[in-house]
Amino acid sequence: MKWFAGSVSTAIQVSRKNNALFIVFIESKNGRGEKMRQLWDKLVDSDPTPVLPASYFIDNLGKPIEVITLLKDMDYDEFFSKINNSVKTFTAATKAAPVNHALSQQAAASHEVSAASSSHPPTSSTAAPLDDKIQRAKLLLEQKKRLEEEAKKEEEKRLELERIQAGKLMQEAQKKREEQELIEAAAQRRRDKIEAEKVRERLKAQIKADREEREFRERRGKPLDASAAGDMPPKEAAPRMEPVPSDRCRVQVRLPDGDNIVEEFPSSDCLNNLVELIRQDGRVCGAFSIAQVYPRKVFCDEELQKSFLDLCLTPNCTLLIVQV
Q: Domain limits at 26?
């Protein structure tokens, strides 16, 4: 048996280069090692294919195909069968290697083509839907923005209209308030004028009543004789009084001691209510009569049952208390 004379690494390189089966025989100096050497020698004599005892069958990639040892006894047929199977395995792997290499190259080329395709930009057919989506998104954004701007303008317009309307309402309210104030001021002036007129009339009536009362007292203090009475001009007839419509009647009563009683009565009350008021006052004692200053008149019992309006005493009058 002729073995490779170089190192193991060199033997591996040579087997790869020649695409040959790489066999390693580890020899031992005992009976079994001698027996395996004899088997190798016998195999060489009968078949050029190498075989070993602690023998390794290694392919061109350095991978063991078969390991034969003499851990148990084996005959030549079994030993030859193992070697034959290793050779067949190596032969099949060697034939399949070019095909696998071509497939590997084809797969690598396909991978490179795929990588190149993925690195290139998409074609027009795939880019078109994406462009359409982008365009639609832009249109939707522009439409949304336009709608928001229109809504904002409408809101500003609505607020402006509300502000204008509120201003108009405030102006109208101010105008109505001023008009109401003018109306109330005019009404107050009319009331003040009427009240002033009433006060003036009352003052005139009071002055007239005071003058007539003074004249009446002076006449009572100076008795008139017949000659003087004959020389006096005839007394004028009392003027005819007409009732003045009024709801109230203001009455001023002069007491004998000079005090006054001022009271208002409904015009429909009878004069006897005034008599009761004077009696309740307590400042007039005894019997008394009620006299009108002008025209001079003393009311009788029948007239005491008449109303102030029927006696033409409205709206105001001055009466005297004459003690009997």
A: 8-94
Work out the average pLDDT over 82-89.
86
Phi/psi of residue 7, nearest 5 degrees? -80, 170
How far apart CA 166 and CA 100 sit, in angstroms, is 92
State the average pLDDT over residues 108-137.
62
Domain end (from 63, 79, 94)? 94
Per DSSP, helices labelled H in the chain are 8-18, 31-46, 76-119, 124-221, 226-231, 272-281, 301-304
Rounded mean pLDDT, 260-271: 92
CA pair distance 22, 13, nearest whole angstrom: 10
Which helix (H) or strand (E) segment is 68 a member of? strand 64-68
**Strand, helix or coil for residue 257:** coil
DSSP tag of 270: B
How far apart CA 104 and CA 83 sit, in angstroms, is 30
